[in-house]
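Here's what a typical entry looks like (Molo-1):
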Amino acid sequence: MLPPPLLAALCLLPALSGVVNGIAWTSAEFPDIRGASSEQCQANVPPDQNLYICDPDRVLNKSQTTWLNAMLHDLTLSTPCPCQRRSQCSGGLDNDGGPLHGFVVSIAMLKNVQMSIHSPSENDLTVRSEGFCRSLEGKWALGDCGNSIIIFVWQHYKKMIIWPARLAERYVTVEERRAILSKVNNLAQGDEWYSALTEVIGSIRRELNGEPETRVDTGTLSLVVSVGVAVALTIIITCTSPNKRELY
């Protein structure tokens, strides 16, 4: 039987497996970019800008963080308001309602995420990253009509994902996100995060200023299909029924 101290150490291994450098974050512990803990995000933000990037582990230097934050601030002001009510896109900075903004893109950057898996697969990393972003989307509550996007960077595993809210997903589709991330993969693998994020922000900005993907109304589609099936069955029955005149 193993000595108690060694047994206790082995029991701790799963909990420590996600800790390689510094803190292994959970989404609950990660700073709120608009809350009281935002000061942990490390950014020199001008007084006329909101905070759009949270890098508590200091993966980027202050100058890079400041420039990326300025890019994201400009993206917000230079993309169209996608919400049905224009008031949902108002900055509320003056008596006239403030300048209108469009999409709100933010960056969550960290060294490590807390995991219980010692050697995670690529799928494990994707599932954990998406779960982290899903929690942050609710916690940060950026955008007022599903017009927010989170760019998530997990530095230790060179993992980056783009997580759009429901409306933003129509402008930056799954295929477009894959193409954007594929283009910067070499930069990410080389830890050139500032260059990679600059490219990603530029690509997202172009997509957000384009046309949204047209969604098919599933209710209407179901009705059309049902009517089509009914018409087809009617024609088949009519064509295969015996001619009444032939019976006499």
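Confidence is low (pLDDT under 50) at residues 4-21, 215-225, 244-248.

More examples are in the samples folder.
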